[in-house]
Specification:
One of its GO terms (molecular function) is zinc ion binding. This is Lid2 complex component snt2. The chain is α+β, with helices and mostly antiparallel strands. Among the domains are: 142 residues, Roll (SH3 type barrels); 53 residues, no CATH class; 52 residues; 93 residues, Erythroid Transcription Factor GATA-1, subunit A (Erythroid Transcription Factor GATA-1, Chain A), CATH 3.30.50; 242 residues, Herpes Virus-1, CATH 3.30.40.10; 40 residues, no CATH class. The chain has 29 helices and 32 strands. The strands form eleven sheets. Strands 3, 4, 5, 6, 7, 8, 9, 10, 11 and 14 form a ten-stranded mixed sheet that branches. 24% of the residues are buried.
């Protein structure tokens, strides 16, 4: 029956809100989950869209909405894409979306609930936002027609556009879409032509490399026809003349034109930055500015800034124009076409009449009158009539479309004639067609060979079956067609159950599910009308989640086709439909294996003898993976502590070859025996209280016994430091790059790193390190526990420093090796970041060994450890200030003199002392 909102819409009232299937009230411009019928969307997750408007049933304008929903209120939706829909592969950040200009009209019953979507620049804390349920973000745009991604910028952040254009865009659109190469130009400062003082776009202007001013190419004298080629620069006339004069007067020196960086603004720049941040935070909570339903429009390489002032200008992304000789054919004019036809007629008349009749395929003067098409025979109407009669025959041993029947009928017609051929076809039996009949055992062997070979291997299968490869190939087509026929019949039966089930049942959040293809009887028995299994089916069947293997759940969802199983628990099913994530982490109840009674304990009735079976000897305990790199290979370099069972690679922990063996002990266990270092194994570079971060991090997996933070090394002060922390802090060094000990230079860490606030644990205790992209401060151990990316990045050496900075080589990369931390929200695709323990097969060392050997190891001739420590502590000792005695001249009573001289009368200044000296001839 039609709803109250549907009646209001039909009567002309504007509907601004409706109630979704789960009971939530959604309004215009709200973001929602939408779900088409399960059979139509093939088990994919929910789509995410924004409500543009509610449409009355009389105004729906596509065919699908008219079937089964004639009196239902409809909604116009703006769709967002998931990255997996665009790139065709799984993406780690499942909260990321792509904006689009793509609308669809669907019944209100497809809305499953409300969600929240924001632009990345309007989110204060991205990590907190992504950890909140039903929250998504976007920073890119995808056009499904051009098949290209575009960057999404806030209109307020764009500076390099005309002021009048920016004023109009700010009133209409919140965001601008542009190509990736246009981002730096739009965010740059406003550019104006030095001649006409008008806005200088990057497409129509050039920049002088000397004075850094911009010029329109048409404002120059003479105008420039094109920009300089890649790798070349351009200079204006005044700068070029001045440069020539400087060269002639030998005032010009050929040095690098990259001057020193301008001085920073200090407190003024910091205050301006704080004010801009405060203004940005205040505008984040405001609703997006929209014009005709859309908050964004295209402003990129192929946009004329003046056209955007018009309200009718198209907002869609544009591609390069397809106008020109490269894309269009050269069409002759009317006069040129008349001349060509006259020349052709003159050549035909000059050739004279031909003795051959000109038919189709012949052209005088072309290929010496040879035919380009030769007809051997034409189908006769009698054959067509005969084949129609054969197709209408009944009680044939094979179907009328069988190729063997068609070939036999055509052969008989051409050899014995119509009447005899028709009688021969009627008398055919099934044995006359050489039928392919395989037993069930042969079919089972055939299917086994398909699975073993990953496809059809006719030669190998023929040997296993004792048949010819031709027979195997022919049967494979028949077998495959039968399988497809069965599956298509099941799909057609299932599609009879339509999306009306989602409208009639308001308790479910999903649509009907196919899961694995089931028969019609199974579908009806399991309540295929909804995505949830009914209570009757759950009570009569043993339910187990196909992903986490749990057996306890209040609600059981149906599985998509991509998952092997029949049901998913409430958490896994909801996460898959909302975020498209399938996690195969085992639940706690699934890890409990029920104990089975061994076969040896069963005894016959009346047997009174004690038959205690001999226990089966267990093998050696399985060696766990490396605690640092979480890998097993190479197993030859794996060491296991004999006391605490700590397992680690020798290259990841710094174990010399001579120490490897069954009696190896880790540093902590060895210190318990020797007591050379502090017995409290706490890293001095980490905060004292680590419980704050542990309380924030929630994981379904139980914590491992050992991880990367279990790798501790002694310091020069008889304390402990993590190998991770010592590697990331630049001031810290290792006495030996082989053993990663002792850790030196902790006292040389700057005060700023000790007093900075960690953005994860919010403590000022411990040494921090900034994120390599955004500058947020983190403790290295906190970043590791939070799952941030930690690794090494290669950068090019600046000119003039090649001799002072060592060059690191790792696989195909070469340059200055720098450790770094990157937040989860940064896009690191294509950056070439090397993990800490990634191996280089040529050098047979991991990245950590190469970095510590080049940058963290103290030179062998740099004194001994105690002297190095004393030199580092010298900067903390206050410098002694000399105490000067107070003197007064006994002659002139002055108390200032460059030098004081002792005399019989006391102390004299320098001037009085020389005045009293006798004059010598």
């Amino acid at each position: 029956m039609p709803s109250r909102q549907s009646d209001m819409a039909q009567q002309g009232f504007k509907v601004n809100s409706v109630k979704a299937a789960n009971g939530e009230t959604v309004h215009v411009n709200d973001h929602v989950y939408i779900s088409l019928p399960w059979s139509d969307r093939d088990g994919t997750p929910y789509n995410i869209a924004r409500i543009l408007e509610f449409v009355p049933p009389a105004n729906k304008d596509h065919r699908k909405a008219a079937r089964g929903h004639a009196n239902e209120l409809h909604v116009r939706l703006a769709i967002y894409y998931r990255p997996s829909d665009v790139v065709g592969r799984n993406v780690s950040d499942f909260r990321l979306l792509y904006a689009a200009i793509h609308t669809m009209i669907e019944p209100v019953s497809v809305i499953r609930g409300r969600c929240y979507v924001r632009h990345k620049d309007k989110i204060d804390d991205l990590i907190k936002w992504k950890h909140t349920p039903d929250h998504f973000y976007f920073n890119k745009f995808y056009d499904p027609y051009i098949k290209r991604e575009y960057e999404v910028l806030r209109t307020a952040a764009v500076n390099n556009i005309p002021p009048n254009v920016k004023e109009v865009l700010l009133q209409r659109y919140e965001y601008l879409l542009c190509e990736k190469e246009m981002v730096s130009d739009l965010l740059d400062a406003y550019r104006s032509c030095a001649v006409c003082n008008q806005w200088a776009s990057s497409q129509t202007s050039v920049r002088c490399e000397l004075c850094k001013q911009f010029y329109h190419m048409q404002c120059l004298t003479p105008p420039l026809s094109a920009k300089p080629a890649k790798g070349y620069s351009w200079g204006c006339q005044a700068c070029t003349v001045q440069r020539r004069k400087d060269v002639e007067s030998e005032k010009y020196r050929f040095v690098s034109n990259g001057g020193s960086a301008p001085p920073r603004g200090g407190k003024v720049a910091a205050a301006a930055k704080a004010a801009a941040r405060k203004e940005r935070l205040a505008s984040n909570d405001q609703p997006d500015v929209m014009f005709r339903f859309w908050p964004w429009r295209y402003f990129g390489l192929y946009t004329r800034a003046e056209d955007t002032l018009s309200a009718e200008d198209l907002i869609f992304p544009r591609a390069v124009t397809r106008v020109g000789t490269k894309y269009q054919a050269n069409v002759l004019s009317w006069e040129e076409q008349q001349e060509a036809e006259a020349r052709h007629d003159a050549q035909v008349d000059q050739a004279g009449p031909s003795r051959l009749s000109l038919e189709r395929g012949y052209d005088p003067g072309e290929k010496k009158h040879e035919s380009t098409l030769e007809v051997w025979c034409t189908p006769s109407d009698e054959l067509d009539a005969f084949m129609d009669e054969v197709r209408k025959l009944k009680h044939l041993p094979v179907p009328s479309y069988d190729v063997r029947l068609l070939n036999r009928a055509a052969l008989l017609f051409t050899t014995v004639g119509r009447d005899k051929a028709l009688q021969a076809v009627k008398s055919l039996k099934y044995a006359d067609f050489d039928p392919i009949i395989w037993e069930d055992e042969e079919i089972a062997v055939f299917e086994e060979q398909l699975e073993r070979n990953g496809g059809l291997d006719a030669w190998a299968t023929s040997k296993a079956l004792g048949k010819t490869p031709a027979e195997v190939l022919k049967f494979s087509y028949m077998w495959k067609n039968k399988k497809l026929k069965t599956e298509n019949e099941l799909i057609r039966q299932h599609r009879k159950v339509h999306a009306v089930h989602a409208r009639n049942n308001s308790k479910t959040l999903g649509a009907p599910s196919l899961g694995k293809i089931r028969s019609r009887a199974e579908s009806e028995a399991s309540d295929d009308a909804v995505s949830l299994y009914g209570a009757a089916y759950v009570s009569t069947n043993k339910m187990q989640c196909a992903t986490c293997s749990t057996r306890m759940s209040n609600v059981w969802w149906r599985c998509p086709r991509s998952v092997q199983g029949t049901a998913m628990c409430e958490a896994c099913g909801s996460n898959y439909r909302k975020y498209g994530v399938i996690t195969f982490t085992k639940a706690e109840d699934a890890k409990i294996i029920p104990k089975k009674e061994p076969r040896g304990t069963k005894r016959k009735a009346g047997d009174t003898a004690s038959g205690a079976s001999t226990p089966v000897p267990t093998g050696p305990p399985k060696l766990p993976p490396c605690s640092s790199c979480k890998k097993m290979e190479p197993k030859a370099a794996m060491a296991r502590c004999k006391t605490c069972t700590y397992s680690v690679h020798s290259t990841c922990y710094g174990i010399p070859p001579e120490a490897m063996g069954p009696n190896w002990e880790c540093e902590l266990c060895a210190n318990v025996r020797t007591e050379e270092t502090n017995l409290e194994p706490r890293c001095v570079l980490c905060p004292k209280d680590t419980s704050l971060l542990v309380a924030k991090t929630k994981s379904k997996k139980p914590p491992a016994d050992f991880d990367l933070l279990a790798a501790l090394k002694p310091t020069e002060g008889c304390r402990w430091a993590h190998v991770l922390c010592a590697t990331c802090i630049p001031e810290v060094r290792f006495s030996s790059s082989v053993t990663f000990k002792n850790v030196e230079g902790i006292s040389a860490v700057s005060d700023e790193k000790w007093h900075s606030v960690c953005n994860l644990c919010a403590q000022t205790d411990g040494a921090t390190m900034p994120c390599s992209d955004c500058g947020l401060e983190y403790h290295p151990s906190c970043a590791y526990q939070a799952g941030h990316r930690i690794g090494f990045e290669f950068s090019l050496v600046k000119p003039g420093r090649r001799d002072a900075v060592p060059i690191a080589k790792f696989k195909d990369a070469a340059g200055v090796m720098t450790p770094g931390i990157w937040c989860k929200g940064h896009d690191l695709d294509g950056r070439g970041i090397v993990d800490l323990f990634e191996m280089d097969p040529e050098q047979n060392e991991n990245a950590l060994q190469i970095y510590t050997g080049l940058y963290k190891t103290i030179a062998a001739g740099d004194a001994f450890p105690l002297l190095r420590k004393a030199r580092r502590l010298d900067r903390f000792e206050p410098e002694p200030t000399p105490v000067l005695a107070a003197y007064t001249c006994s002659s002139c009573s002055i108390d200032v003199s460059p030098r004081w001289h002792a005399d019989a009368t006391g102390v004299k200044c320098h001037q009085c002392y020389f005045a009293s000296m006798p004059v010598t001839a």
